[in-house]
């Protein structure tokens, strides 16, 4: 099954229409003004759908990432790198287990950008600045979840991902025999014909032989379960999506559109340069910009995320947002210490 054929895989869940009120053909500034009202309508409906039984967050790996991508042109630090922690989330509701962001880091290293970076970085440096916390399968085993129980896998986008080990190919059985990869049809279309600006971040050849029955191709905003939705948030990639959860603490969103919560409220950032840059340029967000293909879309998608979430229970200055790759303090990278860390989402329905 080629990636072009995968785009016809049946979808899943229930379509959400609140954001149809945003005219994607209108100028970016017009779209931006239409988002808050659509977000309010979405919230009103979403809060009536219930809550998942349980949400757990597990760390996968902490690794360096270029400062110029993670904090765009805002941070003043001379450090070329900062540190981010990749996480996975496990969401359960009756009959279902969704694993969000189950990155296969071993195979992710073949992504052209990282292959080049690793070739330039001596092994002893990598050993010092890369921390492996646990693999996807180790984390699930620790939670007492058998691979057969997993019904859905989803990523905010497919940069660096090689999903063959999880959902299998025509010749290789997958670790999750009953799981469907829930992906925006736009993301599959992008991978089928990558633009040069996107090429360093994908492994398109790894999608050439996936099983159609292990893929669910969706369009736009979809309710997967009670208080569990995937919303289209294009920009960082063509088919980017965000996980949105209704929990005991209110509504959360999870994506990689920013690498730090303060990048959604730069006026509250103490990272040197961030607040001033946002003020100087009149910008509400400091984007994660390893790909420049759709920055205005990404900015508007961040307003969509910020408009639907609640404020943090720990500090009302910050939105209840979990960057799926989150800026992490590191003694090796001065001037990059986050002001506020979300860290995890933990929820259990009572
Ligand atoms: Zn990315």
Count of domain modules: 1
In the CATH hierarchy, what is the superfamily? Ribonuclease Z/Hydroxyacylglutathione hydrolase-like
What fraction, in percent, of the residue positions are helical?
25-40%
What is the CATH topology? Metallo-beta-lactamase, Chain A
Explained architecture:
It is a single chain. By secondary structure, this protein is of the alpha+beta class. The protein has one domain (3-333): Ribonuclease Z/Hydroxyacylglutathione hydrolase-like (Metallo-beta-lactamase, Chain A). 25% of the residues lie in helices and 22% in strands. The protein is built from 11 helices and 15 strands. The chain has helices at residues 3-6, 28-46, 67-70, 105-108, 112-120, 123-129, 136-142, 164-167, 185-192, 274-281, 295-308; strands spanning 14-15, 54-66, 81-93, 96-100, 131-132, 152-154, 180-184, 215-218, 222-225, 228-232, 241-247, 250-255, 321-323, 325-327, 347-348. The strands form 2 sheets. Strands 2, 3, 4, 5, 6, 7, 8, 14 and 15 form a 9-stranded mixed beta sheet that branches. It has a 6-stranded mixed beta sheet with strand order 1-9-10-11-12-13, with helices on one face. β7, α9 (185-192) and β8 (215-218) form a beta-alpha-beta unit. α2 packs parallel to α11 (295-308). The longest helix has 19 residues, at 28-46. It is globular. The termini are far apart. The protein binds zinc ion. Zinc ion binds at residues 157, 159, 201, 236, 256, 290.
């Amino acid at each position: 099954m080629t990636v072009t054929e995968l785009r016809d895989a049946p979808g899943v869940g229930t379509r959400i229409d609140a954001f149809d009120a945003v005219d994607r053909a209108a100028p970016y500034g017009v779209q931006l003004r239409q988002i808050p009202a659509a977000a309010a309508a979405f919230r009103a409906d979403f809060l009536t759908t219930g809550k998942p039984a349980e949400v757990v967050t597990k760390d996968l790996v902490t690794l360096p990432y270029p400062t110029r991508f993670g904090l765009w042109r805002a941070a003043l630090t001379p450090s070329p790198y900062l540190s981010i922690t990749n996480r996975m989330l496990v969401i359960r509701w009756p009959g279902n287990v969704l694993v969000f962001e189950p990155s296969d880091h071993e195979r992710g290293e073949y992504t052209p950008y990282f292959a080049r970076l690793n070739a330039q970085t001596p092994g002893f440096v990598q050993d010092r600045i890369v921390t492996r916390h646990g693999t996807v399968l180790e984390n699930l085993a620790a939670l007492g979840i058998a691979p057969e129980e997993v019904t859905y896998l989803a990523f905010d986008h497919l940069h660096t991902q090689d999903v063959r080990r999880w959902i299998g190919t025509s010749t290789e059985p997958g670790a999750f025999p009953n799981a469907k990869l829930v992906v925006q049809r736009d993301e599959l279309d992008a991978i089928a014909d990558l633009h040069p600006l996107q090429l360093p971040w994908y492994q398109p050849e790894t999608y050439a032989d996936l099983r159609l029955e292990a893929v669910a191709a969706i369009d736009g905003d979809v309710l997967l379960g009670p208080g569990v939705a995937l919303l289209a948030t294009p920009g960082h990639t063509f088919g980017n999506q965000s996980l949105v959860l209704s929990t005991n603490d209110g509504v959360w969103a999870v994506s990689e559109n920013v690498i730090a919560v303060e990048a959604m409220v730069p006026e509250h950032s103490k990272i040197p340069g961030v607040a001033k840059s946002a003020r100087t340029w009149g910008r509400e967000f400091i984007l994660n910009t390893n790909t420049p293909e759709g920055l205005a879309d990404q900015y508007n998608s961040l307003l969509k995320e910020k408009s639907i979430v609640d404020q943090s229970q720990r500090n009302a200055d910050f939105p209840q947002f979990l960057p799926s790759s989150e800026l992490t303090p590191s003694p090796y990278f001065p001037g990059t210490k986050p002001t506020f860390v979300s860290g995890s989402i933990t929820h259990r329905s009572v």
